[in-house]
User: Fold this.
Amino acid sequence: MNVIEAEGLAKRYRRLRGGTTTALAGLDLAVPAGGVFGFLGPNGAGKTTTIRCLLGLVKPSGGRCSLLGADTRSGLASVVGRVGSIVETPTLFPGMSGRKNLRLLAGLDGIGSTAVDAALERVGLADRGRDLVKTYSLGMKQRLGIAGALVKDPEVLILDEPANGLDPAGIVEVRGLLRSLGAEGKTVFVSSHILSEVRQTCDRVAILARGRCVAAGLVDEVLGQKKRLIVGLDEIEAGRNALASAGIEAAIQDGKLYVELTDDDSARVTRVLAEKGLYVNELRREEADLETVFLALTADSEVPS
Amino acid sequence: MTRLLAVELRRFLWRRSFRLFGAVVLAGIALATVLVFLWSEPNSRGSAEPGYQQALRDCIGFYESTDGAEHIPPGFESAEEACLAEVPVEAFDHIFRLTTLEEIFRGTSVPLIILGLALGASFIGAEWHSGTITTLLTWEPRRTRVMAGKALVAMTGVFLSAAALQAILGLALWPVAELRGSVEGANAAWFADVVAVVARGALIAGLAAAIGFALASTARNTTTALIIGFMYFAVVEGLLRGFRPKWQPWLIGDNAAAFVSGEPASVFSLGNSHGVLVALLVVAAYAFGLVVLATFAFRARDVT
Assistant:
């Protein structure tokens, strides 16, 4: 069962000076239960709008979306108790302590202060829980927001850019937290524009560009789309010619050969080169990163009207 | 709904602005009590007598003059009789009388009503300002319920706070009257009247909170709501009183003041068109109508 679904989800905002801005242009998305799901896209791609639609904060202009099987336009109230979320920067009362803020929220679901303290402990804010939120750093506010989302002990966590504002140590902590939550069987839906973050944290990923999903699947699958073989040798030009004569496309880049492979056939490359008396001093698979994939996937995506 | 109300009430009481306003008013009450204590002089009746007699003579002299004789109020046989009623001896001595509490509470109702409007506006305006409305809706997405709960808490919180502050003022001044003033005339009937004045003032303060709340919810900003509110009461209603006098019985300010005073005809020329109860219903209708409109707007608009 998919815990989050969107079909043809569209959202257009009216501009003050007339016209509309399209934030979502028919988004299709399916997030299965369990694990950490990355929702990746550049700023303005529609990530936050999607999350706002899922949480009933904005009304879709078209299409539908559901959370835990409930249509978010009509049935959100029946499932919201099983969903923890933060949207953009967590918003809490600056003049109250972090603990008081969480106690207020927890009170809405009849959750006691023990769960509040446990959530604060889990995000490393137990010592600062009684301090006013206005004295918190951005990273601490972010962690407090995550604590707020965890108070319910939810089945689904929807986190919008949770690493924003965190220092490197905080990022590592949050990464570990998200992975452990995913490993516990919870579904963690996390949006980000930081590609390396998604790669290190998520099991699955959907890539969003200009309001549409342009790729989705296991992170390894999505990463595997554009893998190349990097070959290092002394006579690089001769190497390229040798490969070309064998029907293998190769490009010279940064003093190395980048070989496009349609299948996993690196042995063939070394054999062709060796037959010509060219011996490789480096041979490795290109660690294709999401930047490459992202740019390749979104380069030709049209701006929706 | 009970949980939502409990949480909203807790938030209302935990708010800094509420505590700040409360502290300022309590400090004002303490100061006023000390000043009244120092000012009140139980034996000042004798020293006030010459001034009182002089004022009486001036008053009688005015009515006995050619022009003044025409102005003797109906129901009075002579200038002396009219002046004995018009020139109270209490105005010339320094004795704090507990019976003046009724008039004091009418006066203090006005700032409490303004404070109620501001507290109601800031109660929801602060949510929009800090963005916490987004967080709240991720816990309770039923917007009508959220609005109803918040409006109810703002109204009830301000009503109870206003009544409590008036009661504290009364309780603070009571010993002053006992020790250095007079409690003459402070009987059960008077007490009932005082309670009614306090309740009426607090009720209007509560309705003002609802109006402030509705304006701030629609504008999504406290300051804008307060500007709109004060512009309306100071400018729009003033213009309407001047240019559309027939509308006066339906203006919020006039009905609110009429209800607090308990004497609509004498205070705001509402004539016999309304009783006190109708004045309350008019204000309540405006407050309820504005909250309903704000709720429709809240349901219809995106939270971005």
